[in-house]
Amino acid sequence: MDYxxxxxxxxxxxxxxxxxxxxxxxxxxYVYSAATLRRHFQLFTDALSWxxxxxxxxxxxxxxxxxxxxxxDMGAGMDVVSGGEYRRARAAGVPGxxxxxxxxxxxxxxxxxxxxxxxxxxxxxxEPELRTLSEVALAMGTTAPVTIRVNPDVDARTHxxxxxxxxxxxxxxxxxRASEVYAEAAALPxxxxxxxxVHIGSxxxxxxxxxxAYRKVADLTARLRAExxxxxxLDLGGGLGIPYERSNQAPPLPTEYGQxxxxxxxxxxxxxxIEPGRLIAGNAGLMISQVIYVKEGExxxxxxxxxxxxxxxxxxxxxAYHDIVAVNEPAPGTPQATYDIVGPxxxxxxxxxxxxxMPPLSAGDLVAFRSAGAYGAVMASEYNSRPLIxxxxxxxxxxxxxxxxxxxxxxINRDTIPPWL
Length: 421
Prior knowledge:
Layout: E1 4-7, E2 10-13, E3 16-17, H1 18-25, E4 29-33, H2 34-47, E5 53-58, H3 65-73, E6 77-80, H4 83-91, E7 99-101, H5 108-117, E8 121-124, H6 127-140, E9 144-151, E10 173-174, H7 178-187, E11 191-197, H8 208-226, E12 233-235, H9 254-265, E13 271-274, H10 278-281, E14 285-296, E15 301-305, H11 314-318, E16 324-326, E17 337-342, E18 351-358, E19 366-369, E20 391-395, E21 398-403, H12 408-412
Parallel strand pairs: 4-20, 5-6, 5-13, 6-7, 7-8, 8-9, 9-10, 9-11, 11-12, 12-13, 15-17
Antiparallel strand pairs: 1-2, 2-3, 4-14, 14-15, 14-19, 16-19, 17-18, 20-21
C-alpha cells in the first residue's frame, strides 16, 4: 500500500497534488511519501514483535538524509555498506549502536571510522577481513563485535545481478567452512563473535528460498553453540520483494515473513535483525517526468520524456519494469495507445518501456513512474552532463525539497583544468 492516489482526476502524493510540486520544483523529480515509509517500517517491526529484534533499514536503497532521519526517529537501525553510508547515518542522528556495517570490501579506514564512532556489529565476509579487523581493533585498543556472513548456496530465484546467496556469488563464506572460520575468529584478539549473518538476495517474491536458508542457519547455530561459540544474534539480511507490476501476484507480506522467521528460528532464543530496504522505500516513491515529444516512428510511436536512464537506471540495467501512469487520470473508457517510452540520452538503452499501453499522451503531459523510491536516486548519475534531479518529501499537506537540483555551473565548476592547459 502507498499514499499516491488520484483525487478529482489528479494524482496526489498524500495531500499534495503532483502538478503543484512540478510547478515549483520542475521536472523530472523524485517524490517520497512519509506516511508510506512509516507504515512499511512499522509493518516489519510488528511482524517481529514476538521476540527481541531490530529492523535495520538498508540505506543503499535510498540514503537521503531526510529519509534516514525519519527512519531513525522511529527507532530503525541502519545497514551500511561503505564509510560514506556510515557517515550519512551518523549525520542523520542514528547512534552507532544501531548501525550494522556490511559489505565485502571494508577498508582499514572504514573499520577505524566505525570503531571510533560506534558500531553495532561488523558483518564479516572473509578470513582476510577477519584478520584485518582484528589488527585494526587491536591497534586501537578496542574490541570489534562481529557476525560472520555465511553463504548457504540457496537460489533466491531473483535477477542474477541481485542474487547473493549462491556459491558462485562473491558474498560470505561457504557455510560448509563455517566451523573453521568461526574457530579462527574466536582465536583472534580484538574480536567478539556475537552471531551469524546471511543474506541471499534482493526482490524475492516467495518465502521458500528464505526458509531454506534460515533452516541452514538454525542447524549452523546449534553446531556452533556445541563448539563453544556464543551465538546470540542472527542477522537475516533483507530481500523481500515489492509488486512492481500491479497485475502480478503480490509478494509475501511482512507478517507472513515474520511468522516464517519465528517458525524456523524462534526456538533459538536469538535476537533477530533484518535489513529491508526496497520494501520500505520502493513503493514510497515516484519519479515524475514530463513528455517532451510524441514521435512517429516507422512502426511505433515514441514518447520522449525529460527523465532519462541517468535518473532511473533500473530499466536499462536490469530490464526492470515500472508502472508508468498519467498524472491526469484518464476518463473511464479512454482508448489506449501503444508507445515505446524513452528518455533523451544518446543511448538506445535509454528506454523505460516498449509497447506500453497508455492513455493518449501529448507534449507537456506529466507521467509518474511508480515504485521508484528504492534504487532510483541513489543510482543516478550525471551522464550526458544532466544534473541530478531533485528529491521531494511529502508529509500530509506539506512538502519540502530534500535534495536540490544542482546548477550547470555547480556541475562544471567541480572540474579542474590543470595549469599547463
